[in-house]
């Protein structure tokens, strides 16, 4: 594994499994990931192609702002994070269900 591939392996943090991401996956052949805050579209595309052996058609990223939450008497703030919608080319699929 080259240094570039090693760096790309750390770009994806986790798949996001929610009602919206399941709907997008079924209807638009798109997978949703939580990615590093500094990740670019090219890095996300390369990471998905390397880790899952699929071809990516397009990538859309968005920054999610952290919410303010109360913890007892004090007010805290959750961290900001980045989400990536990865559209796969026809004929490719990623299955996260296992075991």
From TrEMBL:
Top-level taxon in the UniProt lineage: Bacteria
Gene3D superfamilies with a match to the protein in the record: 3.30.70.330
GO biological process: translation
A GO CC term attached to the entry: ribonucleoprotein complex
Keyword rRNA-binding: yes
Keyword annotations from UniProtKB, A to Z: Ribonucleoprotein, Ribosomal protein, RNA-binding, rRNA-binding
One Pfam family from the record: Ribosomal_L23
Transmembrane segments: none
Annotated coiled-coil segments of the chain: none
UniProt-listed InterPro entries: Nucleotide-bd_a/b_plait_sf (IPR012677), Ribosomal_uL23-like (IPR013025), Ribosomal_uL23/eL15/eS24_sf (IPR012678)
SUPFAM superfamilies reported for this sequence: Ribosomal proteins S24e, L23 and L15e
GO MF, one example: structural constituent of ribosome
Record bears the keyword Iron: no
NCBIfam families per UniProt: PRK05738.1-3, PRK05738.2-4
Family named by the database record: Belongs to the universal ribosomal protein uL23 family.
UniProt function note: One of the early assembly proteins it binds 23S rRNA. One of the proteins that surrounds the polypeptide exit tunnel on the outside of the ribosome. Forms the main docking site for trigger factor binding to the ribosome.
SUBUNIT field: Part of the 50S ribosomal subunit. Contacts protein L29, and trigger factor when it is bound to the ribosome.
Protein name from the UniProt record: Large ribosomal subunit protein uL23
Organism for this UniProt entry: Crenothrix polyspora
